[in-house]
Amino acid sequence: MDKYIYDASNGLWYELQGDYYIPCLTLPAEKENKPISLWGQRHKHYLQEHKRTVYISLLTSGKLNNYLADIDEQATEMMFRLVEQMADKEGVTEQLKVENPMLWVGRMNEIQARAREIVYADIIYK
């Protein structure tokens, strides 16, 4: 038996694996490979666990990396914007940082935690 055969009706090559011919399939290459940081990785994990069909569709179409990079960028921008707005609204300023650094750190940690939860709810786990 031949190691490889070609089926003209569907345009696929098949490779002999034991007693069966298995299609030789590859994923399409993405045009550019953008870096994906924390937010993109978390959304990827969410898709793998809870939205399997969306994940597989993006993966097989070659659009997963661009999609995750876009989500990552949106989440990062939203996080910075929310932290800045909340800090301004609550009076957490550079003056407070100079006068009472421990209070400033505590309040900024609280603000970041709240902003993180909003980003999770609005972008990552949606």
From TrEMBL:
Pfam families associated with the record: TnpV
Q: What is this protein called?
A: TnpV protein
Classification lineage: Bacteria, Bacillati, Bacillota, Clostridia, Peptostreptococcales
